[in-house]
């Protein structure tokens, strides 16, 4: 029997709308039901992501990847996801290599791109800027990270990873203890992730950060519902006790303009000694990456690389099926996927 999971997403595309059009700007667009619908599409495309099957469902379509900030994972995995569905990709990276360097506006850039491509992924250093791209065009725009704002596709692949790992461990998301560590002020991945997690019930969310880098209060207010217990602490050892997931983040030095890093203490590093002392055998250690491997960096040590609790590369692998699912839904081909698949 065919064990391929079924899509049956119904009107999923109708629920991935921003201002009435299929766009992915913020996780605020999701309900728990629509997140889980998207994850069913990600399950369906897994054989294509693993190259066991092929699909040309987006044949002839072109993706515009517009990245005005550094990226490896988001840019390449969105591109790879589009190609795996049969489409092709045009990239522009950095302001220097776009006509924005000559003073072109977001509005003009976006209008022009709509004549060339079928969808855009945009990363830009200013919060709210990707929504500006979206408002100027009639093609789907995906937020690949808008300054310290949001990174919705990263949060979706993080939650997808948590669900997959929990299924293996016999756990569920409802009632879990998730500890988020590091730069919770500027880290856009954690802004999106806590809002998605808040769609579930009865979580303990421990926010571990120095005072200077605490989670913005408007996000804490937004997630204070559904019976969640939210604790803020500067103590790493206290905060990690009993955690099912430790989600570490890099200090976003590029967001500091008139501030110093003095408030960020070296003892915020997640390393083998700490995990052995404070965490359990099933605790997952996650990070959106990149982790900072330079001298004096203090987010996630490489000494955990051989520890099976480290889920970071399983996270990055899950970026492909989740991003394929996002394209399939935004471009309205999710119900054609199963019929389009053939053996590789
Ligand atoms: N996680 C993430 O956004 O990685 P990149 O900056 O490499 O895209």
TrEMBL record:
Q: What is this protein called?
A: Aspartate carbamoyltransferase
Q: Which reaction does it catalyse?
A: carbamoyl phosphate + L-aspartate = N-carbamoyl-L-aspartate + phosphate + H(+)
Q: Which residues form the Aspartate/ornithine carbamoyltransferase Asp/Orn-binding domain?
A: 175-329
* Entry EC number(s): 2.1.3.2
Q: Which GO terms describe its molecular function?
A: amino acid binding; aspartate carbamoyltransferase activity
- Tell me the ranges covered by the Aspartate/ornithine carbamoyltransferase carbamoyl-P binding domain, including all copies: 24-163
**GO terms of biological process kind:** 'de novo' pyrimidine nucleobase biosynthetic process; 'de novo' UMP biosynthetic process; amino acid metabolic process
Per the record, the domain of life is: Bacteria
What keywords is this UniProt entry annotated with? Pyrimidine biosynthesis, Transferase
Q: In which pathway does it act?
A: Pyrimidine metabolism; UMP biosynthesis via de novo pathway; (S)-dihydroorotate from bicarbonate: step 2/3
The top EC class is transferase
Query: What exactly does this protein do?
Result: Catalyzes the condensation of carbamoyl phosphate and aspartate to form carbamoyl aspartate and inorganic phosphate, the committed step in the de novo pyrimidine nucleotide biosynthesis pathway.
Which family, according to UniProt?
A: Belongs to the aspartate/ornithine carbamoyltransferase superfamily. ATCase family.
Q: Which GO terms describe its cellular component?
A: cytosol
């Amino acid at each position: 029997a065919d064990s391929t999971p079924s899509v049956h997403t119904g009107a999923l595309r109708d629920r991935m709308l921003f201002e009435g059009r299929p766009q992915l700007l913020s996780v605020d667009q999701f309900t728990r039901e629509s997140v889980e619908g998207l994850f069913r599409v990600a399950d369906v495309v897994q054989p294509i992501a693993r190259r066991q099957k092929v699909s040309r469902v987006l044949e002839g379509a072109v993706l515009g990847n517009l990245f005005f900030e550094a990226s490896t994972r988001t840019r390449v995995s969105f591109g790879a996801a589009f190609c795996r569905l049969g489409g092709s990709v045009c990239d522009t990276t950095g302001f220097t290599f776009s006509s924005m360097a000559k003073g072109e506006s977001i509005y003009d850039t976006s209008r022009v791109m709509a004549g060339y491509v079928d969808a855009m992924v945009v990363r830009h250093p200013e919060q709210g800027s990707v929504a500006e791209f979206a408002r100027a065009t009639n093609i789907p725009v995906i937020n690949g990270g808008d300054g310290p704002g949001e990174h919705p596709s990263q949060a979706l692949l993080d939650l997808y990873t948590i669900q997959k790992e929990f299924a293996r461990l016999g756990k569920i998301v409802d009632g879990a203890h998730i500890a988020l560590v590091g730069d919770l002020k500027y880290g856009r991945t954690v802004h999106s992730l806590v809002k998605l997690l808040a769609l579930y019930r009865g979580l303990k969310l421990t926010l571990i950060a120095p005072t200077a880098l605490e989670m913005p209060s408007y996000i804490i207010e937004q997630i204070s519902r559904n019976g969640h217990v939210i604790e803020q602490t500067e103590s790493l050892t206290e905060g990690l006790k009993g955690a099912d997931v430790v989600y570490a983040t890099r200090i976003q030095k590029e967001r500091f303009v008139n501030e110093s890093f003095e408030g960020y203490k070296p003892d915020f590093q997640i390393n083998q000694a700490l995990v052995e002392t404070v965490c359990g055998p099933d605790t997952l250690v996650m990070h959106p990456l990149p982790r900072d491997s330079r001298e004096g960096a203090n987010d996630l040590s490489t000494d955990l690389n051989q520890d099976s609790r480290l889920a970071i590369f399983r996270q990055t692998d899950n970026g492909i099926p989740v991003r394929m699912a996002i394209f399939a839904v935004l471009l309205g081909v999710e119900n054609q996927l199963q019929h389009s698949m053939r053996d590789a």
